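How a chain folds remains the central question behind the approach discussed here. No coordinates are needed to read the tokens, only the vocabulary itself. For completeness, the protein is quoted in full, as a sequence line and a line of structure tokens:
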Amino acid sequence: MKASEFTDMRSLEALGEPEATTESNRGKWSQELDFNAYADSSVTLPGKGDRGKNCGKWYPQEFCNECGEPRFGESRCLERSCPECWRAWRKQRAVGIIERLQKARETAGSGLEKRLCHVVASPTEGEITSLVDVDRGFRDAYEKAKEAGIHGGTVIFHGFRVTTEAKRQWALETDSGDNGPKLWQWVREHNTHWRELTYWSPHYHILGIAPEVESNDSDDWIIERIRTLDNYERSNLDSYRDIAKAAMYIISHTTFESNTAKDSIRWYGSLSTAKFSADEQISSGVIDLIERKAAESVDEPHKNTGSGEDETECECDVCGSTSFSSIFEAGGALMDIGWCNRIDREQEHRLNIAFQWAIGELHPPPGLKNPSSEAEAREAFQELL
């Protein structure tokens, strides 16, 4: 077996991580390896499953605080397998990763003790072929990472790598520079099924705190450092965005067991949920700052389209107010006699019907039970009125 080795890979441009050029072949399994990977057909990628129950259906979502007019919205399942919601799921998970890593760096000492690295841990060829092996691989990755000096962080499982032929095709079909789609983006969006462009080669991406990263001289796993991320600066958004770019890309093709809640993103070592709690070490003001910056870092900088429209504020169709509450708070509003006296009887009736629909006490008639657009939701609402 190959001895575990260490290389300082500065980048992964061809694979999509910022400021990178190529990933080495070290740790990759042979594409011609003859074995049965039972886990292969049991796992999938984000967005490659079915939509969740009621995802995409329209229903009363909010109401105007000034006049009580209901406002309709599209329900979202926010499940990782959903073709519509997986990006929102990815964003949520990335924010959680950024928050925890930055809080850990805040509590660390100075200099190298705040250092954050992206590392890939790859097992020996043929070692991981079943779902049980995948779980064991997480534990092995934790230990190998700690031996290499990465004392805590998040581990994200990938079951597949892109075939050599698919990479050639990607290079021919796209501008593989800064302006073209990254490799896994291309795989996800290609009209060829993603499984035909990949092969089973399990590995574990690690974003972890590591003052020093060293070879662990193991005789089985290969630990490869991809790069060191930007220095920690509490108020500098770029410090957060560097983690966001890495996390968002890694999560885009994480591999998880279909039809289960088993997580493919886990914490270990000094950052495990049992060992690290920021609330006990950081002031509430600093926590709020870190969480705000983490949320900002996963969004693209605001671009002025010149339309003059502010997409963050929507006005009530009836009174023009921009103040809304969740439809599930309508029950309390309808019990407020003073507020009900301020809106007219018709608006009170409209809100009550919308509230009853939202909580499941009323149902639209057959044919309109599951509106798939705002127009259909409004039609169903009129039938209920």
The chain has two domains: 13-42+85-297, 58-76+323-384. The CA atoms of residues 42 and 257 lie 6 Å apart.
